[in-house]
Amino acid sequence: MKKSRKAEARPPAAPARRISWRRWWPWLAGAAALAVVFQVYGPALGGAFVFDDRNAGFFAPGRNESLATWVGRIRPLLMVSFWIDYRIAHGNDPGQYHQTSLLLHFFTSVFAALIAAKLAEWAGAAEKMRAALALFAGSIFLLHPLQTESVAYVSERAEALSVMFYYAAFAVFLYKPGESITPARSLAVVLLFGGAIASKEHTLTLPALLLLTDSFWSRGGLRKNAWLYGMFAAAGAAGSAMVLRVIGESKTAGFHLREMSPAAYFFTQGRVLWDYIRLFFFPFGQNIDHDVAVSHTLFEHGAIFGWLGLAALVAAAWICRQRFPLASYGVFVFLLLIAPTSSFVPLSDPIAERRTYLPLIGLLLICCEFLRRLRVGQVAWTTAAAAAFCSVLTYKRAEVWSSPLALWQDSVAKSPEKYRPRFQLAYAQYELGRCADSAKNYELASQMGPIQSDLLVNWGLSLDCAGRWEEAVAKLRQALQFKDTAHVHSQIAAVYAKHQHVPEALRELATAEKLDPSFDVTYLYRGNIYQMLGDRAAAIREYQRALALNPRNDPARIALEQIGR
Fold first, then answer.
1. How far apart are the first and last CA of the chain?
2. Three-state helix/strand/coil letters over 155-169
3. Mapped to the 3 state alphabet, what secondary structure does 383-397 carry?
4. Is residue 298 packed enough to be buried (19+ CB in 10 Å), middle (13-18) or exposed (0-12)?
5. 147-157 pLDDT, tens per residue?
C-alpha cells in the first residue's frame, strides 16, 4: 500500500527539548544552599548584638552623616559594608547586619566550591567527580559549625568580607586559560586582593599562596606570570605598610603586648593549631573564649610535641605530594593561611575560632583527596550526611550566639575559671535585670583576675540594682583608688540621687566637673536631679550644657524635649 503524498510531505516531528541539568544544577544547588543556610543560622539572625558589637564604630549613634565619617584609616571596605547596613536599617537593627554577614558567607562558600573544582581537575579527577567535590567543599564551608563565630558575630564580619575577596581573587587566578595570565586578569586579581586587604590584614598571604600554587602544580611561575607578580610587588608594599600600621596601633596584637611575648605565643601555637584541626574534624567543645594555658617555653604544656607533630605532617605532605596531591597541597595551604595569626606575632587571645575561616579551604582539600577515591554516588551521600550533621551542630551553635546571656553562659560552663566569660556573663545578667545573679558573678570574677576599676564600677551598679546601695557606693569608692575619674564620681552621684541623698549626689557631681569639665554625663545627671527637685530652669540649663558638649547625648535631648512640652 502506497503512502499518500500528503503523508510524505509532513515534516518530521521536532525532538522534545530536554532540560540541560548540567547547565542549571549549580544554580539550583546554590538556591537550595542559600535557603538552608538561612534556616540553619535562623536563631542568630534574630538575635541581638553581642560582646564587642556595641563598641564597634557602626553602633555609635549619629554615625550616619556621611560615608567619610565611617571609612577612617583601618579596614575601609568593612566600614563601608557597615555604613550600608546602617542606612538600610535606619539605625542599629541587628537583623540587617546579621543578614548581610550571612550573604557574604554564602558567596564565599561559592568561591570555595569553584576553587575545589579547579584543583580537583588539576589532580586528575573526572568531570562528575569534580562537581561532586565542589559541592562537598562549598556545602561544608557553608554549614560547618566552626564558621559560626565569623558569621554570627557582627564585629567579626571582617573575616567573611575579606575572605570573599581573597577566594574570589584566587579563583580568578586558578581559572586563567593556560599557564600564563593576561594583564587584564592580573589586574582583576590585584584589585580583589586590594579589597581583601582593605577588609582585614591577614589576607596579605595571597601572593605567597599564588607562588605556592604555581610551584606545586607546575602551572606558571614568576616568568610566565610576570604581569601578576609585578603588580603584586607594588600592591604588596602598600599592603605591608597597612599591616604594620595596624599592628602598631592595635591594643590586642603586636610585639608591644606585655602579657604575651613572641616566643610564648609561638610555642603555644604549636598546641593551638592542633586544636583548630580537631575542631574541624570533631566540632565539639566550641567556645567564644577558650581557656588555653600559655607555653612560655618549648617544653611547657607539651608545646614541643605539637610542633614536632606539625613538622611530621609537613614532611608527610611533601613525601606524598605525587600520590595525594590535593591532601599535600591542602596541608601547605592550611599552614600558610593560618600563619599570620598562629606564628610569632602575638595576639592577646591565643585561640579564636574565627581564625580558621580563611585557612579552612586547606582542610577541605584534604577531605577532597580521600573522597575522590570513592564513586560519585558515594561522595554525594557523604556530602549529604556531613552537611546534615554540620547543619544540626551549627543550628545549636547559632542558638548560643542568639543572645549575650546564652553566649556567656555557654562560655562560663566551658571555661569556669576564666575571668572574661564570668565578667561578661555578669554584665549580660545586669542588662536583663537579674541583678543578684550579676553581683554574684562579678564577685566570682574578682577572684579570677586582677581587681580593676571597670569591674568595681559594674559590680557596684549591680549591687545597687539588687537593692544593696550602700555596698554599691563602697565598691564605687574602691574603684576611685584605681581611677579617680569623672565617670566614677558621676556613677556614685547617680546612686545617691536614686536614694534621695541629694547633697551627697551634688557634691560628687561637683567633683566630677572639677576633674573633667568636658564630661557631658555630669550635666545630664545634675539636670536629672534638678528636674526631680522641681527646678525646671536649672534642669534645662544642665541639659543644654550636656548637649553642647555632646550633641549625641540622647538622654539629655529627650529630657529637654519632655520639659518643653
1. 104
2. HHHHHHHHHHHHHHH
3. HHHHHHHHHHHHHHH
4. middle
5. 999 999 998 99
- Average pLDDT taken over every residue of the chain: 89
Alpha-carbon distances, residue 2 vs 11, 144, 268 (angstroms):
18, 70, 92
| Contact (CB, 8 A) for 415 and 286 | no
For 347, the 3-state DSSP assignment is strand
d(CA 489, CA 477): 8
Query: What confidence tens digit (pLDDT) does each residue in 219-255 have?
Result: 877 777 877 888 887 766 666 666 666 666 666 666 5
What are the φ/ψ torsions at residue 347 (nearest 5 degrees)?
A: -120, 150
Separation between Cα atoms, residue 294 and residue 303, nearest integer Å: 9
How many CA atoms within 13 Å lie on the side-chain side of 436?
1
Q: What is the pLDDT of residues 503-543, one digit of tens each?
A: 999 999 999 999 999 999 999 999 999 999 999 999 999 99
How big, in percent rounded to 5, are the helix, strand and coil portions of the chain?
70, 0, 25
As given in the structure block, the three cell numbers for residue 453 are: 576599676
- Three-state secondary structure string covering 474-524: HHHHHHHCCCCCHHHHHHHHHHHHHCCCHHHHHHHHHHHHHHCCCCHHHHH
Please report, as a single letter, which amino acid is at residue 414: K
What is the distance between the alpha carbons of residues 340 and 357, in angstroms, rounded to a whole number?
A: 13
Q: Which amino acid is at 164?
A: M
Is residue 253 helix, strand or coil?
strand
Query: Which CA distances in Å does 360 have to 12, 337, 371, 459?
Result: 56, 9, 17, 40
Cα distances from 271 to residues 150, 363, 456, 542, in angstroms, run 22, 17, 35, 57
Distance (Å) of CA 24 to CA 31, 32, 427: 11, 13, 51
Question: How is domain 415-564 classified at the architecture level of CATH?
Answer: Alpha Horseshoe (1.25)
Task: Cite the residue boundaries of each domain of the chain with CATH code 1.25.40.10.
Answer: 415-564
**Alpha-carbon distances, residue 364 vs 54, 160, 210, 426, 469 (angstroms):** 34, 17, 18, 39, 56
Q: Is the pLDDT of residue 192 over 70?
A: yes
Ranges 24-38, 158-172, 514-528: which has the least confidence = 24-38
- Tell me: the pLDDT tens digits for 424-435? 999 999 999 999
What is the pTM assigned to this prediction?
0.89
Q: Which residues, at least 6 apart from 59, have a Cβ–Cβ distance to it below 8 Å?
A: 49, 53, 92
Q: How many CB atoms lie within 10 A of CB 13?
A: 6
Identify the three-state secondary structure at position 285.
coil
User: Residue holding cell 581583601?
Assistant: 196
Amino acid at 375: R
